[in-house]
Amino acid sequence: MKNVLLLSFGMFALGFDAYVIAGLLPGISDTYQKSTSQVGQAVSIFTLFYAISAPFFSSLLAGKPIKKILLGSMLIFTIANSITALAPTFSILLLSRAIAGTGAGLFSPLAVAASSKFVSSEKRGRALGLTIGGMSMGTVLGVPLGIYISNLFDWKLTLWLLVMIGVIAVLCMYIFLPDFPTTPPPALNERLKMFLDKRVTITVCITFFASVASLGLYTYLSPLLEEMAGSSNLTIYLWAWGFGGLVGSIMIGYLIDYFGKPKTLVTIILFTLTLSIICIPLMIHLPILKYLPFFVWGAMGWACQAPQQHILLSYQPNNGSSAVALNSSVNYLGSAIGASLGGIALSLQMGTITLIYFAIISMSFAICLQFYSMKKKFSV
Length: 380
What we know:
Layout lengths: L1 H31 L3 H4 L1 H20 L5 H21 L3 H26 L8 H29 L2 H22 L11 H9 L1 H22 L1 H8 L6 H25 L2 H22 L8 H12 L1 H11 L4 H28 L5 H21 L7
Helix pairs in contact: 1-3, 1-5, 1-6, 1-7, 3-5, 3-15, 4-5, 4-7, 5-6, 5-15, 6-7, 6-11, 6-14, 9-14, 9-15, 9-16, 11-13, 11-14, 12-13, 12-14, 12-16, 14-15
């Protein structure tokens, strides 16, 4: 599991970066004199380029040395974060976020696919859970720390902390991560079959709608809490969300290995995630209990990815990295669209409760597709 932990540390940097920006929106807004909805597009552009780069580069670089690709992508990601910290204008900041998203989109699916090669098939679920758990650890530890540093000093110092973490990740992988065999690039017709596989299409569509709901809502957590709870203090809510994500992403691997029914787990996760979102406005004023929906939301949102990837790997055993890249891409495409829709809703002054409604509607689509996928011919 040592090699899996190395990949998990790289994912920690990605999770820190992807989710801390939502907490830095007020500071970035003040620096560049932009509205919250405008600054929210920094999240959208990161996730959009993440979504675009994952399938494109997984095809372009198929068959190339995976260790070199992992190192190169983490280096690109780290350099982009340094540009974000130094950005003299908002336009350059957006450009740097696009570059960072490209590096992250290349690293993440390769790391997830590679982690399954370091363990036996019986431990694949745990390896996937641990790798994705690194990303959630970046949320539970990195995001509150980043926001605390931003509040004490400046949001740019948080980005420099990210740069330092990225440098450490590059050095650790360069020194300790072994070279391992690359998978020969699949033939073009095999790739087309994957994209035309109805089972794959339905699975990634479920990921898409769940991501629109979960990650899109997360982007505007700051204005949501300010309007609904009269509080701009994100820290405890982010701790609850991030800690839930850590628990969910790690435990789901053991559940997959123990029960061996990823589709059933996904169904339970989707229903529970929807319920947690519904409970946010209902419980927001209850002492202590107001944090529970955020914990469950984080746990279910993060737990959803491992069984989905496990399902895709079973559908496409010869195209594993491409299938995981596609799911990762769609996950962040959903995040980008969710963040963009949320920004539009806020700019039209529709109220943050609209974000809750959008999330519930999106989750309803995901649940309907999941029931369809549970038909016998799509079973796993």
